[in-house]
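Per-record layout

source: Aegilops tauschii subsp. strangulata
name: Fatty acyl-CoA reductase
length: 451
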Amino acid sequence: MIGEMDADMVVGYFGGKSILITGSTGFLGKVLVEKILRVQPDVKKLFLLVRAPDVESAKLRIQTEVTGREIFLVLKEKHGMGFYDFIDEKICPLAGDIMHENFGLDTANLRELSKDIDIMVNIAATTNFSERYDVAFDANVLGAKHVCAFARKCMKLKMLLHVSTAYVAGEQEGLIPEKPFLIGETLKEGTHLDIESELNLIRETRRELKANCSSEKAERRTMKELGLKRARQFGWPNTYVFTKAMGEMLLGHLRGELPVVILRPSIITSILKEPLPGWMEGIRTIDAVVIGYAKQTLPFFLVDLSLIMDVIPGDMVVNAMMVAMAAHSEERAQTIYHVTSSLRNPAPYAILADTGHRYFYDNPPRTGRNGEPARLNKMRFFSTVARLSLYMAVRYRLPLEMLRLVNIALCGVFSRRYDDLSRKYRFIVQLIELYTPYSLFKGWYVRVKME
C-alpha cells in the first residue's frame, strides 16, 4: 500500500481531519505539528494534549513551547500577519496527561472529543534511559494503556499511531524483524513478564519507602535502581526501552479492532530538509557524547568505530508517520514499522568520530573565562569493555584511591579535590554504562514494510 502512495495522496488524507496529538511539546511533536499545518492548512483541528492545570495554561505552554519556536518561522512567513489567527483556528489546547485515565479530562470534554477525533498520535513518553521506574512506568506503560482506552471510545477513529523506539529489540544481533511483542514476552530465555506484577512491585516499593520515611534522594535512587534491575532481569538494557516494550505489549493486547501503527525510529537527530535544515532542540541521544568531547570533559569512550550508527533525521520520522497513517487508515490490524538507516544507508561510528573532530578543530568551542578557544585533543576509543576497564583502572581508579588515602592521612586537606574528581569519574562511568548497548550494538533493523 505504501508503495502505491504519492505525496499528494498523503497530504490530501489529512484534509478535514481532527487529530489528537500527545507529546507536542517534545522535539518530534513540534516537527509533526508544524509539518501538518504547513502542508495541509485544511486540516480541521489539532487537539494538543499538554500537562497544565487548566486550558489557559495549556494554551500558554503551546504558544511558548510549540508555535513560538524557530521551527515555525517558515509557517509564520507563509501566513504573515494572519499566522496567529491561523494557529488559533487550527490548534485546540487540552489540559491533561496520558498518565491518568481519560487523560484527566472532564466528562463533557471527553464526550465531545470522542465524537470529533479521526486520528490519534501518541508521542508522549519519558526517554530518560535511567528514569525512575515509577515515572517511566506511568508514562510509557500506563500512558499507552490510557491512550488505547481513550481511542476505543472515539466513534469515528480511523487511526491510532504510537511512537515507540527501535531499541525495544534490546541487544539482539543480526537482522531484527518488524514484529510485535506478545503480552508477557521477554528478551531473556526462561523468563515471563507480568505487567500487573510490575505495577504492584512499584506500588509496594513506594509504600516501603514511605513507611521508612526515606529522603527524596534515597527514594529517587531506589526507584532508578529498581527500574534498571527489572529491565536487565528480562533482557532489556535500561528502564526506557523496557517500559516502551511493555507499552507496545499493552497496545497490541488491548486494541481490539482498532487500526494501530507502531513506529519504531532509531536514534532521532536534527532535521535534514524541512522546514529548517539542521534544526534541533534539546540534547538528544548521542549529543551528550558530542558535547562531552567539545568541552573536553569526556576524553575517551566505549564504541566500536566499525559498527553501524543507526540515526534518522526528525523530519524523515515525521514523513514516515504521515505516510503510515494514510496508508493504514481504517485497517483493523496492527502494523509495525522500523524507521531506521542501518540497512538502507549504513554509516559507521567512525564517520561521527572523524567529522566531529574536524568540525570542532575548525570551530573550537570557547570555554575559557575570557572566551579563549578550547585546546582539543582527539577522543580515545575502546572497542571492548575489557580494554576500557583496564584503562580506567590504571588511569583513574588507582590515582583516585591513592588520593583518597592521602586525603585521610592529611585530615581531609584534599577532600574538595577528591570529591570533584570522584563525581566526574562516576559521571563518565554512568554515561558509558547507559550508552554501551548502543555503541556496541550489532543489529540491523529490517524495514521491509517501509520500503
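summary: The longest helix spans residues 385-409. The mean pLDDT is 92.
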